[in-house]
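Weekly puzzle thread! Below is a chain. First person to post its structure in token form gets bragging rights.
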Amino acid sequence: MLDQAALRTLFPTRDDIPAQHRRAAPLHQRVTLVGGALQPWTGDTVPVVSPVRIRDDSGNLTPVVLGSVPQGGVAEAEAALAAATAAYDSGRGAWPTMTVADRIACMRDFTMRMVARRAEVVELLMWEIGKSFADSEKEFDRTVDYIRATIDALRDLDNASSRFVIAEGTIGQIRRTPLGVVLCMGPYNYPLNETFATLIPALIMGNTLLFKPPRFGVLLFAPLLEAFAAAFPKGVLNTVYGKGEVVVPYLLGSGAVNTLTLIGSSKVADHLKKLHPKANRLRAILGLDAKNAAIVLPDADLDLAVKECLLGALSFNGQRCTALKMLMVHSAIVDAFLRRFVAELAKLKVGMPWQAGVNITPLPEPDKVAYMRQCVDDALARGARVVNDGGGTSCDTLFYPAVVYPVREGMKLYREEQFGPVVPVMAFDDVATALDYVITSEHGQQVSIFSSSPEQIGTLVDPLVNQVCRVNINCQCQRGPDIFPFTGRKDSAEGTLSVTDALRSFSIRSMIAAKQTNASKKLLDDIVQQHESKFIHTGFIF
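Winning reply:
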């Protein structure tokens, strides 16, 4: 029987940590990137603490301090905003007026520099948020692939615009242009990939950036600051550190931010948007809450459904917006499903992030274990039970997954997004009950259907696509591939993120137009032939 003492022994002594993963010394970041230069930092700092604990001979657990980062305030946010505003210069700056080909060259330069720091970033990613080393490597590599795919997509988009359109006596050329100053805030669960999924397209489209790293997963960006400074013109990307409740209201309240991109909670997003004095001018690209459900029908392939639901519910401890956070299983098979699900869950490896094949690792949020316990206790008090041995057992930052059944209306787990290793399961007799759950949800990101019936799947898909933005058939919910749209309805998102859609989200179509006269034709031809404009041209990027 798994108990707290057993979980405690999973934390390492100092000697247990493999030599290649031991931290030689804390990394104390003492610079910020503002106005194109790494500015020395002498002000207050915030310690960065790993969710990993070190166990001594007496069994006591001590947090691992990874280093520290600047703790900025309004004055520093003001300086960063001034630098970003100056770099954009009302659309006249070097970066927003640069040719797409030249911006692509800068991004390729950054990518090369970023890849050179891979080992440092991956290690920090693993230590800061407790993500397995293998998954930390995957996150880095997937992010690099995303950048390269974004470059290719922009090249194709610009090439398609490198011609004139003639309609009804008017000659026009249409291209995508930047929006202005972008405030970018990413999440802690995918601090590199999800942050760059907004930051990179915003940047390459010619916007200037205010980048506030996530609360957890902030130190891992330190090795990349030099790359940003070297690859891009002065003031194109500026870092903002400090408490969000202090610096973000100032930035948005200034009215100088044109675009807000946030991956976080809908409550925070609603609050932040109201801070802008000209809300109609603020474009928001948001990835927000989700309570994605799986609907497992009686004719489902149980082995497949269990495998996909287990991965969907507990990959990276369930700390994914795309995680399956409610399993709805038909009452005819719910007992069989739970037996198999619990048996497969018991095979998951619990341990430290550097261990090969590890599945369940320490949680980075200090209060997350207590919240998971609260969710489970609430369900138990209202008639549910934990159906897996040891489910809900915790020790410091480790929480062993709990499968909770039956979950009903009125329990926290029924509607709240748990964002952690608790798996709520409910049974249904009529598929209309499962459909009604999705319809009445405040969230509308994705859903998974498990069935072998074309008729049943077809009947469910038609209403579900009007409630969520992706219906997964016999597979877990997920973001990728990155060329597919990634968005949500209701409180789950605003704007669309994918390789091509993100480029459109962070830009607007602008055009030049002239009457179809001989004089206009000659004028436009002279502009193109003499390379008088970076907007008006017919160049092709290879």
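Puzzle host: Confirmed. Bonus trivia for everyone else. Residues 325 and 418 are 7 Å apart (CA to CA).
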